[in-house]
Structures are given as C-alpha cells and as structure tokens.
Write a structure and sequence with these properties.
The chain is mainly alpha-helical. Helices cover about 60% and strands about 5% of the residues.
Length: about 270
C-alpha cells in the first residue's frame, strides 16, 4: 500500500503571505478555461468572442467562489454557520462545495447572457466543456492537502490504496480525490469536448454536463469517506450523492425535451417561410 506524500500545503511565500497549492489549483482551472475558451471562440457558430470569454471568466470566478462557499454553508453545515455567521466569509478556514460552485456559475451564465444579449442555453453549451478541468484542478488540490480521503479499501485494491496520516487511523483507503480527478475531470472533459465539436440543439451540451457530472460524482462518492459531521444519509447515500441526483434528473429531462422543442421550432419556421 502507499502512504500519502504529505505535501506542504504552502507552495511558496510572497514575503509574509503564503501561496497555497489549493489556491494555485483554482488558478490553473481559470487559466485552462481562458485558454480553451479562446480556442472555442474561433468557431463563429458558437457566438462568442475572445473578449466574451475573458469577461465571462472574470464574473465566473465570483460565481465559483461565492457559490462554492454558500453551497457549503447551506448544504453541509447550516446549523454551525447559523451560530457563527461571521465565519461565513472566512474562506481560509476551508469549506467549499462544488455543487454550490456550479449553481453560482449557472447564475453568472444567466446574468451574462442577459447583459450581452445572448441566448442562455447557447452560452452554457459554449462554456460547460471547460468546467471539468477546473473541477479536476480542485480535486488535485484536495489530494495535495491530503483531505477528503476515501473509504477503507478492500485488500484487493491495496496496491493503489493509500494511508492518509491526516485520518489518524493508519487504514489503507481509496485515493478518492484521484478517482474524482479522473472521472469528473479528465473523462468528463474529454467527452464534452468531443460531444460539442459540432452544432447541436441549444442546451444539449449543458444537459449532458448535468447528467455526466451527476452520474460520475455519484459513482465516485461510493469510494469517498462521507463527512464525519454528516455521515451517510437516507438510503446510505452521502450528501454529495443526494445533491447530484437532481442534476441527473434535470439533465435527463432536458435531453429529451430540448431536441423536441428545437424540432418544433424548426418546423414552425419552415412553415412560415413556405
């Protein structure tokens, strides 16, 4: 079995200020979004320019941070933060929820589309293929910090099971951060990038993201240790799995409804032309 390398969470110092690996991973995700977004903006049919990508990233950063923090506060520890409201903005103490970050980004997409006179679904289709790489970067930050480790591993997987000293129990565990890095990050990115290479009915790529992320998160959570202050909830599912289920359901419904709506709209336009 392996032992977590125990990386120093501080990558380097700028005078008295520590620059942490976790923050750098967020920066990596934002840079990847900007780089790939500019590349996708070269296709005129996507309706986005390089300047749009830069502005969307600027506001998207706020959506990720505010949504991720409020998601953690509301979904995971509402009672604690109700008693300690002054700690809500204390991001340096940890506590971000990817589901909350996704909600924050969706709200930014909606506002940005209205402000720029763009269609929300087309904007979402443009942007969501880059999001998994940001999620992957965040999971790598979790792994570097030695946090959010996996459940106890069966001896059959001990060749890649890992002991996390932060768990203080010496139990070989699934490196679930790396599972999520591969599934919700690299695999989902590869699929969405390929899937979005040609025009599709508005909202289809975004719907595929909802289904794909939700399903892969549910799968990965079976190997992840639930939060000690929550444990497993109803039906032996974790909070992360319960939050992912609505994403899968909404995305699946949209994958059925949106193509029908697109065909109906196209038929009406053809009839009007004839």
């Amino acid at each position: 079995m392996l032992v977590h390398p125990q990386f120093d969470p501080v990558a380097f110092w700028i005078g008295p200020l520590p620059v942490r690996w976790y923050g750098l991973m967020y920066l990596v995700g934002f840079v990847l979004f900007l780089t790939l977004g500019r590349l996708r903006a070269r296709d005129a049919w996507r309706g986005m320019t390089a300047r749009d990508v830069e502005d969307l990233l600027f506001w998207g950063v706020f959506g990720v941070i505010v949504g991720g923090r409020l998601g953690y506060v509301l979904f995971y520890r509402p009672g604690y933060y109700l008693e300690h409201p002054l700690e809500i903005p204390m991001l340096w103490k940890g506590g971000m929820a990817s589901h909350g970050g996704i909600v924050g980004v969706i709200l930014v997409f909606w506002w940005f589309a209205r402000a720029r006179g763009k269609r929300f679904l087309q904007l979402a289709d443009f942007a969501v293929p880059m999001i998994p790489l940001g999620l992957a970067a965040g999971r790598m930050g979790n792994f570097i910090n030695g946090e959010l480790w996996g459940r106890a591993a069966d001896p059959a997987v001990w060749p890649w099971a890992m002991v996390f000293p932060q768990a203080h129990d010496g139990i070989p565990r699934h490196p679930s951060q790396l599972y999520q890095f591969c599934l919700e990050g690299l695999l989902l990115f590869a699929f969405l990038w390929w899937f979005s290479r040609k025009p599709r009915p508005p909202g289809i790529v975004a719907s595929a993201f909802l289904v794909g992320y939700g399903l892969l998160r549910i799968i990965a959570e079976f190997a992840r240790e639930p939060d000690d202050f929550l444990g497993l909830l109803a039906m032996h599912l974790s909070m992360g799995q319960w939050l992912s289920l609505p994403m899968v359901l909404v995305g699946a419904v949209l994958l059925v409804v949106l193509p029908r709506r697109a065909r109906s709209t196209s038929a009406r336009e053809d009839g009007a032309i004839s």
